[in-house]
Write a structure and sequence with these properties.
Elements (H helix, E strand, L loop, with lengths): L4 H10 L27 E4 L22 H4 L5 E4 L1 H8 L3 H5 L2 H21 L6 H8 L19 H7 L4 H11 L2 H12 L5 H18 L4 H13 L5 H16 L7
The structure holds zinc ion (2 copies).
The site of one zinc ion (ZN) has 3 residues, from strand 1.
Length: 257
């Protein structure tokens, strides 16, 4: 048993697709124009996975009191490059140098740094970034049914989608750029009338796909955020992708009404 694919994606998103080890800064998603990043990062176990019975060696920081579910839970994983993963898992050196508490601290600090950079970069989102962040939509076929979205207060929508405070914080910041996104979409629509529909369809397709896998609430929102970033490596592009998602969220185009 290992962590689910959704858990790994969430970990990659909250880690900014970057190795969490201080000083490493290894980018774990190669730049991708296709929009489907190849993950090269590893969801490393904080408290180890194997007890040493059978074929496998005992894992670093193995804790017999934990269940397998806890071992593979988001809270027990840290996003690392393979080099750093090997370093922390080495017995005895890695295990001694990187005890459980230290890894939890490293992870929390890294995720906070990523979140802050994401929020800060909303200030750098302009038409060039939005153009790069939505280029993928030019090839989408708008086949998904997208009609009948009645307006609803944003707070209600957030509640309906079961979002947590982190997600609310990101949305609040992203809304600051929402008017820039509207202006951008309108300006593209003047020469390409179907652009808004294709953009919406691209997001909705992903939304239904994730829903079908049983993902909901804050996890669903964050996986949509990751999708919106399309494997971009520049922070301004990543935040531009987010701003587009939040704009569609605000106008009720994506997520439940
Ligand atoms: Zn592991
Ligand atoms: Zn690393």
């Amino acid at each position: 048993m290992s962590a689910t694919y959704a858990t790994k994606l969430l970990l990659a998103f909250r880690s900014g697709d970057t190795c969490a080890m201080p000083g490493c800064n290894c980018k774990l998603t190669p730049d991708s124009d296709s929009g489907y990043p190849i993950n090269v990062g590893e969801a490393a176990h904080i408290a180890g996975e194997h007890n040493g019975d059978g074929k496998k060696k005992r894992s670093a920081r193995y804790d017999p009191s934990m269940t397998d579910e806890q071992r593979n839970h988001y809270n027990n994983l840290i996003y690392l490059c393979s080099t750093c993963h090997t370093t922390i898992d080495a017995i005895p050196h890695g295990e001694n140098a990187y005890p459980v508490e230290r890894l939890h601290k490293i992870k929390a600090k890294h995720e906070e740094k990523v979140r802050q950079a994401m929020l800060d970069a909303f200030a750098d989102v302009g038409f060039p970034e939005l153009e790069e962040a939505t280029r993928w939509a030019t090839t989408i076929q708008p086949s998904v049914v997208t009609t009948d979205y009645s307006l609803l207060g944003l707070d209600d929508k957030i509640k309906k989608n079961d979002l947590d405070d982190d997600a609310r914080g990101v949305i609040a910041m992203g809304l600051g750029v929402a008017s820039e996104v509207s202006r951008y979409i309108e300006s593209v629509a003047q020469t390409d009338a179907e652009f808004p529909e294709r953009l919406k369809a691209g997001f909705l397709e992903e939304y239904w796909c994730l829903k079908k896998e049983g993902i909901k609430g804050g996890d669903l929102f964050e996986l949509m955020c990751r999708f919106a970033q399309r494997g971009f490596t520049r922070q301004a592009q990543r935040s531009a992708g987010l701003a587009v998602l939040i704009h569609l969220f605000e106008t009720c185009e994506v997520f439940e009404k």
